Amino acid sequence: MKNQDKSNKKIRKTGFFILIFKFLIWNYLSISPVTAATEEPILSVVQSQENTQQWTEITKRLQTIGAKYCVIGLADVKSAADWGDRTVLFLPNVETLTPAQAIALEEWMSKGGNLIATGPVGSLSTPGVRHLLRSLMGSYWAFGLNDTQQIKPGKGSIKEWANQNELFGEVHGGVVIPDAANSQAVAVWNSQDNPAAVVTTEHSTLLGWRWGTDAASTAQLDSAWLKAAVTRHLTSPANRSNKVAGGSPNCSTSVATGPKEEGEEKNFSAIATASQARPLSGVTPPTPVEPIDQLEQTVRLDVAPNSNAPIDRNEAIALQQELENLIGRVESADLAASVDAANVDKPESSKVEQVQLASTKLEVPILNREEVLAQARIVAKNLPNLIAQKNYALARQQWQVTKANLWKQFPIDRRLAQAEIRAVWLDRGTIVRAGSEKGLAEIFDRLAQAGINTVFFETVNASYTIYPSQVAPQQNPLTRGWDPLAAAVKLAHQRHIELHAWVWTFAAGNQRHNEIINVDSNYPGPVLAAHPDWANYDNLGKTIPIGQTKPFFDQANPQVRQYLLKLYEEIVTRYDVDGLQLDYIRYPFQDPVAGRTYGYGQAARAQFQKLTGVDPINISPNQKYLWQKWTEFRTQQVDSFVAQVSQQLRQKRSNLILSVAVFPLPEPERIQKLQQHWEVWARRGDIDLIVPMTYAQDTPRFQRLAQPWIASTQLGSTLLIPGIRLLSLPSMGAFDQLQLVRDLPVSGYALFAAENFNDELQNILSSTQGKVQPATSEPIPHRQPFKTAAVRYTALQQEWKFVLQKEQQQVPAKTISDLNNQAQVVQSALDQLAASPSASNLLAARATLTRFQFQFRMWMRQQAIDNSYQAKVWENRLATIERLLRYGERRILSRSES
To answer: Are strands 196-201 and 204-207 parallel, antiparallel or unpaired?
Structure first.
């Protein structure tokens, strides 16, 4: 007991000194931020172009805390010394750092600096910068939450500094992912699985919301968290000094100030309106990143083989599930290849692969696919045990090696594709490099050899037409002297490929293209240059939003709409294109929570004010009713234009296929950030194909992006074609994603883009989906949906007959007989519909298919137990056939009747 009393006294004494130390620290902190000459700031705050609009609230909160701080302009940071010599650096909502700034930050932190960051820090930076920030902070912003959530203390032992009531309340933020062994989630969101809201390491703190914005959190909560984080870093044993070695002692110790005009005082309190906006003096815009790249910020299955960082329950499940799914994809591809009519009699490759799991030190080479699959199943089964034993490095190593070995088992030497849409975006750069019809012919030869049957040909880019136009003011200067569109239509049709004109809709210019053609980077494009009143603006009066590269048209301007409709009519009547694809059919990427909004063109403001009596420039996201009206107004501008395009062009060309390239963000988030409501276009029947840009560097992430839309019941009869980005994607990674598409209930895919179509991928696609004969008449789903349904059903029958023949001892003969008989009834109904499309034949085909789908689940009960993946694949392919019938009813029967 005496020892216990002594221990308790010692703890109380230690606690008392800690409290005294904290009192002294905050006594030191609690002096006006405009410091006297004798007072030194202990905190540096970074000011950038991106937090300009939030600076008033940021400075107010800093004043509330009473911390002495100085301001560092991000644009002035070129080296580690430029980050200053203060122990703590605060990055409030800074989403863009250059590589030089990130490297300088790494050096500054290595000398004893501590970083506090908030919001999606670095999320608009290049991938290399994002990766470096991730390692510096031991965590990263994954994705924003749709709704306000309650913050609560993290699991496990609660740190004393983070155990204060004022730290926990309702916040609109995002999920932060711990990514290092020493990372700790000190606060979590009160939602399913309790994802992290605040993550710390010894030298960093990442708050998962935009600090200093009323739309995200209260001033009280913001102030409490910053105060707690600064105190933590200043009182850390690692921080023996209040200075960072080698840092510059110079930084502005006045309250954050903006540009000073003649006769003005320095004041950042007013947020500029569209007509008053001025750029920050001495601050360069952040490095632009395409908004679609931000999808790659979200959670990926990144597996570093030598990392021994903990693997949580969700990641463990994901790792095991992905191995099991990959095994299923390999088997599914092998089955399709085995029953293909052109290759079914060919013996399997006898090539011996020296496959070895390095982590398990197997010495015996695995000679065939069955042994690789068996070993992969063992690894998948044992993963939870390794993780439970905290053998994380070995678990990751086994997972990676097994994945690589499974990729080697894909049958890439045999044809396995069914009738499907196989599309590729043929980009402007590739067209320009072709240089002539002869050069373009070589590209189309490669695409035809690879089995591509649909090309989205970049026809309008940054308001320049690829062809000599009588409507547009200027042909692209890089293609003057020839007509690439006329050549492409001819070359495509000679090779039985469809040619769809791909056009930029509301994006009017491109700074990157300006650099290529050697004009001023701020040139708005030839159309806006001629009609500046057609331009759209953000809430600061800029035509190009911060961090982006493109000015946009005012979607509400009737003259803009008339011009675009006339241009598209020229394309589809002057050229025998098979379709038109609308890209940039949206507003620029925005973030209302961060105060970045768009759509304040002259026509839009006038129309909205006429409807509501309010100028939208004076509305903020906090005014929920008015903000909803403003969002609905902008969304309707895009919706109505799609309807106009569909109606007007189909009057000219009834067989025209209309497609849209769209963002795969959740619907509420997409409407707030892009005003792109493509579910409405699909349900109305305005479009034939939805091509979501489901771009990801790994198959699990690709599936998570695509799956919600594939399973959606909100798309009417419109076909959905997932997009796959080839940039930085290994060829086998691309093939893996293709195989996943073939196992899901969709009718094809689109590859972005031709410029990344390398020889290795070319060879793989030529073998697995290339045409058997040059003049083969394989149907294209969007053009011949009923015939495609019949052909795909034939291939499906071949697959399950092949399997049942091998397993007939396990399946009752009567079951096989019933299945074959009923399957033949469906085949006959589909063949009849394909040969003679009519309402009565469609009704018969649909009825027999629906009955068969119900019975098929019962017939395949044993197969579902033995191989659940393959059974699900067959159900998905039956669902694809049903969707083709639904699309065909609208596309063929409805139009023929009208």
So the answer is: antiparallel
Same domain, 797 and 768: no
Q: Dihedral, CA atoms, 244, 246, 252, 254, nearest 10 degrees? A: 30
- Euclidean distance between CA atoms 898 and 891, whole angstroms: 11
Domain assignment present for residue 294? The answer is: no
Partner residues linked to 151 by β-bridges: 189
* 508 and 623, same domain (yes or no): yes
Closest C-alpha among 458, 415, 456 to residue 433: 458
Residue from 121, 106, 142 nearest 46 by CA: 121
Which is nearest to 404 in space by CA: 472, 357, 460, 456? 357
Token pair belonging to 717: 């009869």
Residues in the chain: 898
Residue 263 CA: distances (Å) to CA of 269, 280, 427: 17, 17, 51
Q: Is the pTM of this model over 0.85?
A: no
Q: pLDDT averaged over consecutive 10-residue blocks of the chain (898 residues)?
A: 48 44 45 43 88 86 84 90 90 89 87 92 78 86 82 75 83 86 86 86 93 90 90 73 61 42 28 27 40 50 63 87 95 92 41 34 55 93 91 90 94 94 98 97 97 98 98 97 98 97 98 95 96 97 93 98 98 98 97 93 98 96 95 98 97 96 95 96 96 94 92 93 94 97 97 95 95 69 97 93 73 80 95 96 95 84 79 94 95 68
Domain that includes residue 876, residue range = 788-897
Contact between 143 and 117 under an 8 Å Cβ cutoff? The reply is no
Same domain, 578 and 435: yes
Element (H, E) at 595: none
Residues 475 and 351 in one domain: no
Same domain, 639 and 759: yes
The CATH number for 511's domain is 3.20.20.80
Give residue 178's Cα distance to chain centre: 20
Residue pair 459/501 in contact by the 8 Å Cβ criterion: yes
Please report, for residues 256, 422, 511, the alpha-carbon distance to residue 767 in angstroms, rounded to integers and kept in the order given. 62, 14, 40
Please answer whether residues 776 and 422 qualify as being in contact, where contact means their C-beta atoms are separated by less than 8 angstroms.
no
Q: Are residues 149 and 189 in the same domain?
A: yes
Q: How many helices (DSSP H) and strands (DSSP E) are in the chain?
A: 27, 21
